[in-house]
Amino acid sequence: MKLNLQDVPRVKTITKEDFIKNYFKPQKPVVIEKYIEDWPAYSKWSLDYMKTIAGDKEVPLYDDRPVDYKDGFNEPHAKMKMSEYVDLLKREPTKYRIFLWNILKEIPQLQKDFWYPNFGLKLMKGLPMLFFGGRDSYTFMHYDIDLANIFHFHFEGEKQCILFDQKQNKYLYKIPHSLITREDINFADPDFEKWPALAKAKGHIAHLKHGEVLYMPEGYWHYMRYITPGFSMSLRAIARNPKNLGKAIYNVFVMRSFDNFMRRIKGQKWIDWKNNEAIKRTEKANSL
What we know:
Elements: E1 4-7, E2 10-11, H1 16-24, E3 30-32, H2 40-44, H3 47-54, E4 58-61, E5 78-81, H4 82-91, E6 97-102, H5 103-106, E7 129-133, E8 149-155, E9 158-164, E10 202-209, E11 213-216, E12 221-226, E13 230-237, H6 242-266, H7 268-286
Parallel strand pairs: 1-10, 2-3
Antiparallel strand pairs: 3-11, 4-5, 6-7, 7-13, 8-11, 8-13, 9-10, 9-12
C-alpha cells in the first residue's frame, strides 16, 4: 500500500496570465520545466560552483533528529565550512542539510545570476533562500510558518517532493502548536498499520531535476527528499487569502512564542504531550 499521490502537473513554460488563472487562483501546484534557462544560474550553479564562491563561509547544518525541548526554533545541529560540506555531499550520504540560507546576506554576488520572475505575484525580494542536501537526506513533512506562495527552483541532481494541502490535516498526524507532522512517519514508505489515517490523505508528488521550478500554493505541506546531492532556491510571495494571512500572523507572533514558552516551562514533557496529542486528535477526527 502506498500514499494516494497524483503527479504534480507539468508545463514547459507558462505566461503570467496562465499561471494566475490555472494555478494561483485555484491554488494548485505545478512544475515549470523550462522557465529559467535564460538565467546565468541555470548554467553556472552547481555544488562545485557554490564551493568556489562560498567555500570559506560557515554554514548551519540540520539533520533528521527529533525535536528536542532544549533546541531553539530552527537552531542548527552543526556548523561547517561550505567547502567541507560540499566535499561531504559528494563523498558519501549524509543527513546534514542547509535550509533557509539567505544568499543576499551571505553571498550577495549570487543575485547577479538570477532575476525575480513575473508570475503575477509580488515576490519578497529580501528572502531568496537556499536549501542543500545529500543523497537520501530529507525534511520532515511541514508547512511554512508564513503560509507563503513558494516557487522552488532546483539545481543539480534530483529531488522528490510530496505535497498535501491544508484540507488533509486531519489525516497527517499534525503536531499541535507546530508546523510539522509526527517526525517518526516515513513519508517515503509509510507504515499504514501504525499510521492508518494516512491512507485517506490525498496529495501530490513531483520529481525535480536541474532548472525545474515547483510552485507550492499557500500553506501546502511539503516533504523533500534528495535523491542525489543537490540544492534549491525558494522565492516566496505573501499569502493572499485573508484566512491564510491571519494564520501566518498568528503563527509568527503567537504560536511560535507560546511553543517556545512551553518548552522552557515543561521541557521534554511538552514535546511528548504534543506527540501523543497528534495521535489522539487524528484518531478522533477519523474515528479510528
